[in-house]
Structure formats: C-alpha cells, structure tokens
Amino acid sequence: MAKSTARSGAALRRTARVTGCALLAGTLAAACGSGGGSGSGSGSGSADSLSIGLIAEPASLDFTTTDGAAVPQATLGSIYEGLVRVDQQGRIQPLLAERYERSDDGRTYTFHLRKGVKFTSGAEFTADDAVFSIDRVKKDWKLKTARQMDVVEKAEKTGDHRVKVTLNHASNGWLYAMTTRIGAMFSRTGVTDLANHPVGTGPFKLAERRRGDRIVLDRNGSYWGGKPELGKVTLKYFKDAGAMNNALLTKGIDVVGTVQAPESLSRFSDKNRFRTIEGSSTGEVVLSMNNSREPFKDKRVRQAVRHAIDHKALVETSRAGHGKLIGTMASPTDPWYEDLTGSYPYDPAKARQLLKDAGAEGRTVKFRVPNMPYAMSAAQVVKSQLDQVGLKAEIEPLEFPARWLSEVYNKADYDLSVIAHTEPRDLWTFADPGYYFRYDNPAYAKLLKDADSGRPEDEAARYREAARLLSDDAAADWLYLMPNLMVADKDVTGLPVNQVGEGLDLAGIRWAKKK
Amino acid sequence: MRVFLRRTASLLVSAVIASFVVFAFLSVLPGDPAEVVLGTNAGQAELASLRHSFGTDRPLVVQYADWAQGLLHGDFGTSYISHDPIGPRIADRFGVTCWLALGGMLVALLFALPTGVLAAAWHRRPAGAVLSALSQAGIAVPAFLAGILLVYVFAVRAGALPAGGYTPLAEDPATWARQLVLPCLSLGLVQGAVLTRYVRSAVLTVLHQDFLRTARAKGRRRRGALWRHGLPNAAVPVLTVLGLQLSTVLVGAVVVERVFVIPGLGDLLLQSVADRDLLVVQGVVIVLVVAVLVLNVVTDLLYHLVDPRLRSR
C-alpha cells in the first residue's frame, strides 16, 4: 500500500528524472539486441520494471463477484485503494481519507477525504464516489464478505470531501473491514466492466492482461501520493512451482512471490544472486475437526488430537522448518496475538489417556484433504502422529477448489481436514455455527460481539480472551502459520516482509542499484 | 470426391456424438461453477442467484440444447468465470498450441526420417542396432520429463535458452522462436523416437519386397533403388502413424504447456476444469475432437494421393 506522506517537489522531480534516464537506458539496451541473458524471456531487466512470479491467476479482476485471494492480491493497494489501510504492523492508517473521526458511541465515522485524488479514468474522487462505493457493497456485491457492510445504516455526503457513515451499532471490526476489498473505492462512472477494466485511484493502473500468463501494471502517472519506484510491474502466473523457480534462475522473473515448496529454497542459496524474505502472513494452517460429529463432538477427543501432534516435527518434516508455531487463530500482526503453543504441549501419553476416557481409541476418522502440496504433506505427518496414539485417520485427497469447497466447506461432510485460512482477522469463523468447523459456543460468539461493539481500547483484550477460549476448547488445532516466503534477485528491495492485508504491496519495491 | 463427402459426413456424425458425450461426462463431474466462483464466500442465497444467472439451475436437456444450438451458430457461449465470449479465447489459445504441435512434429520428422531410414538400411550393422536401441529408449521418456531435463541443461545450467514463457509471433519473432525451441524439442524428440520405429519397420518391409529386388536387378544401386522405389512405398504406413501422432501431439501439448508456462489450449483446458468453467471445457474438448477428426480425414485423403492403388476403389 502506498505511503501516505507526500514527497517534496524536488524529490519528485529527481525521481522523474532518474526514471526518465532508466527508461532511455532500457530502450537502448533493447535496441542492442537480446544478447544478454537478462533481456530474454519475460524478465524485465530494466531498472524501472520488475516481474513477480505468483501462483493462481485471478480468473476475473472483479472481486465484487468473484472470490479468491488472487483477485485482491493483484488489485488491492495497487489499482484500488480504500479510505483506510492496514500497515505492516497491522495498525489502521488513513489512506484516501486524510483523517477520520469516530463518535463517542462508536456509531458514526466522519471521513475527511483527500483532495486532488483522481481515478485513472481522469474523474476526480469525491464524497459521491465514496458513498456510491459503500452503498454498492450492499446492493451489487455477490459475496458473503459483503455482509460486513450490513452494519452500515447509511452513508451520506456532508461536503464535497466529507462522508458520514452511521452504523446500526458500534463496530470496531467494520473499520478494519474497510481496509479490505469491501472498502475499495470505485468511480461512479468506472464500474461497467470490472472483470476486465478496473478503474481505481491507486499507484498503478492495468496496462495489459494476458490470460493464462500475466497481468502488467503501469505506474499511474497522476497518482496523488508518492510516486511508485517502478514504472512497470508484471505479475507472471505459473501453475507449476518448479517452472516458477526455473524462471527466477534464468532471469525470466525477478521475484518468486510465494515459495510453494520450501525445500526448493536450496536452489537459491547463492547469496551473490538471491535473497530470501521470510515474514509472517495471515494464513493459519488449521487442522479442522468437525465439532458437530462424533468423535470430535467430544472435547476430550479434540484435546487428544492437540496433544498428539508434535508441531515442531511436523513443520520440520513437511515445511523444511519454515512455518511459525502459533497454536491460535491469530497472526503475529494482529494486535491481540499471543503465542498459545504452550497450552497443548506434545504429550502422546496424555492424548492416549484422553482418547481412552472418551472411548474413542482405535476409531477411524475421515480425513478429507485438499490436494495442495502443503496440505497433503501436513496431512501425512498428522496421520502418522495420530496413529501413534490410537486414532486412525483415513486420508482422502479432494480436488481443490471444486470438490473440497463443495463437500467439506459447504456441506461439512468430513471429520478432519487441513487448510490455510488466509483471510485476515478470521476469529469470527468460529462464531458462526454454520461454518464448516461447526463450532457452536454462544459464550465465544458473545465475546466476539462484545469485542466488536465495545470501546476500541478494549478490543484487543477481548479478542485475546476469545482466542484463548477457542484454544482451551480445542475447537481446532493450529498446525503453523504459513510464512510469507519470497525469493528475489538480491538487488530487489522494498518487498513487503509481512503479508498483512489482502493486497500485494507493490509501491515500495525498487531496484537497489541501476542495472 | 465421393470419398471426401463420405468422410465429411462421418466426421459430422462423430462430432455430434462427441458433443453429447462431453456434455454428459461434465454434468456428472462433482463440483459446481457457482461454488468455485464464490469460494469461501458462498451463502445459500448468493449461490442460488449465481446458478440462476449461469443457467446451471435448468434441466440438463435444456442446457445441452442451448449450448448445441449456440455451437451451430459458431457461438461457444460466455465463460462463467471471466464473463467473456469463449470462442475468441479458444481461437487465441488454439493458435499457440498449433505452433507448438507443428514445431514438435517438425522436430519429430527431422529426427525420425534419417534415423529410421538409416536404422533400416543398417539393420545388420552395429550402428543400426544402436540407433534402434536409442529410439526404443526415447519412447520410454515422457515428454514432461524430457522438458524438465532440457530446461535444466539448456536454460538453468547453460543459460542459452529461456526456461519458459510465450511471446506472440507478431510481437517479437526472435523471442517467440527462442521460447519455442525447448518445448518443441521435448515434444518432438519423444514423438520422433516413436516415429523412428515405424519408419524403420516400414523401410525394412519395403527392403524385402520383390519390386525392390527387380529394381536392383535392373542395375540400380541399393541406395538409388531405395530412394526411387522404396521410400515412396514406405511412406504410406508412415503417413498413417503421422496422422495419429499429430493428434497425440495436439493433446500431449497439454503437459508440455504446463512445464514451459505456455498459455495454450491445454493450459486453458486444465484451468477450466479446475474452475469448473464447464462451457469453456466443453468448447475446448469439442475443438480438440473436431481437430483430431479433421486430421484423420486429411490423412485418409492423403493416402489416396500417395497410393494410386486406393484411387480405383
């Protein structure tokens, strides 16, 4: 996401000049032919452009009707911006709103919009657009996440650059939700073809989209904030992790945006060529247990599972050691995060005893696993560790997304499953008894409700309490936190270390020295 | 001409049957495009409304009739996922795959014809046995493995060629060619190994035919007799295999496209199956089926050109 501080005019001019030279140099290099390795393929090779390899191409650029992390990853913060954003530490910061005020009862927010902001279509961003965007979530969005906007009673324009939002009841979660895709600001005149022609206020604009291959973003020349360092960013999509690694090794791309198989990192051990970035993400890898079905209806069986798993060994075996142990449904960048790995230490004897008490020794459970490499390899370890305490898990790989979504997520037809829950701040998933965890605990739901509607100062403490309750109750087991793991050309700097929001933060990335 | 008409008629019938089979198969495939689009954000109301707008809530017969009717007008429908017309997208991807398949076949021919003929001509010598063994080994290597090995050697180690990617010919012919070398090699070498076996056995058969002995008796050298009389006769069985192989290559390109990150038809097919973008899957499969059928007809017609004996029938 963009820096909210504007630069001085002189610095801006200098940047413009430097980029101008770089562009010229790039053209010259291209004119001299593709003799060098870096000029070949789809790699950028110029100081002004960069290409990032990613897995899973968004099928549509319209995140108002199509779900999937890939859509906001490519567009949020780069093409679209919200009134507020979340920073690398997980704090909410102003963005298109210069500042905002919250009323004492927490029911009204007044946003003072930044002036002189333009959409890439040329239209100016005003209070009308903000009201339009907020209203549109309730009206035209097709996704369940849009229900987070239901708390809004009305959004009204109180000045050309001032918007007042009234909520049905106080909600801390709403302001955070405004940093996610549902808070994206659209132009009243720019929503006719969101799937292919996004119009936003962000530091980049869509230059080219080649289906099945890449999305190219160009610097938005009329961006209101600090100019992004790069003139062109190519998001190159790979279906095969090996092909993505080869592309970096052969300078086809400059960054591997998500390392799929950590054991492949050894291919990039040459410090003179590559560097590895490892931070936290919002993806908790959850070993889900169907709380509404035998045997996991019994808390003792769930507790047995938590004691039976040697998380450290699991991360060593299935992730080559890359993955932080958390033991909770929170990420280190959440203000209420605390490490809860201590509450269920590895203790096979205790697990065996708990299973015996519950009369579940030797039982067979249906372990339905999405067919993604990380999930399958974690499942193998879990299976063998459960075996040792006397619980037989029968692994059944399910095609992801189609079958897993249909059978496990939507119908909850499973006993055990494992998947990374990548949505930021997703404690709420356990408060909905219809969610596939099938965890039904009114006390927990009340805690979340109180945290949301209480004073902002109390929010973190209440969520912390809720997370502890979830852990004590063994509503699920948290295997590890998916690392934000990237490998880049050693000259690329400014890559976001932590993945905190839904968008990939591109504005700060640059080349350390001119190539 | 009659042959041509008969062939075309049977092609059409096959295509209709294929369209029916494809549709039937996909309708029993578990999973639902609406569920994939809405992902973890699916509510019952949202699902129902999306199914309605896709038209997947209608009876299967109606859906099939709707789709088939569109096909007759050359309309492949609109993608559930990306909301754009499917026809142009398939055309775009088909072009890419065609280059790959043609390049692969070219490699296969360039490799198989000399190797096969030599292996046959030298079948009593050790060199012939070596060629024969090599081609046997080549058959055993799957194209994706050949691809991974080629990438490792020529792209990662030597840095001589790009490891993958695709640039349209019109945009940058040099890059286009450089990027196609390794994929065509990995597709072509394996097919070439298969083809070598057929060329070898066809030429071997011909070598022992009476007409070749007659040609030698007339005073032609062995090489001359083979060139003038042998190879045209060996061409008939090889042509059959070639037609079949072109179909195989078209379909085999799927895997190679994955390894080399080429946005071709196979890549589109796999992605659409994963997304349950059923109309796209149906469209791609129909195009592939028709392409294979057309290739078969063309091969048949070529027989008639190459082999005068067939013309009288």
From TrEMBL, chain A:
Keywords: Signal, Transport. The keyword Coiled coil does not apply. It comes from the Bacteria. CDD domains: PBP2_NikA_DppA_OppA_like_6. The keyword Phosphoprotein does not apply. It is found in: Cell membrane. Residues 92-421 form the Solute-binding protein family domain. Pfam families: SBP_bac_5. Residues 1-30 form the signal peptide. It is a lipid-anchor. Belongs to the bacterial solute-binding protein 5 family. This is Peptide ABC transporter substrate-binding protein. It comes from Streptomyces hiroshimensis.
From TrEMBL, chain B:
Keywords: Cell membrane, Membrane, Transmembrane, Transmembrane helix, Transport. InterPro entries: BPD_transp_1_N, MetI-like, MetI-like_sf. The keyword Zinc does not apply. It is found in: Cell membrane. Residues 94-299 form the ABC transmembrane type-1 domain. PROSITE patterns: ABC_TM1 (PS50928). Its main location: membrane. The chain crosses the membrane at residues 9-29, 99-122, 134-156, 176-195, 230-256, 279-303. SUPFAM superfamilies: MetI-like. This is Peptide ABC transporter. It comes from Streptomyces hiroshimensis. The lineage of its organism: Bacteria, Bacillati, Actinomycetota, Actinomycetes, Kitasatosporales.
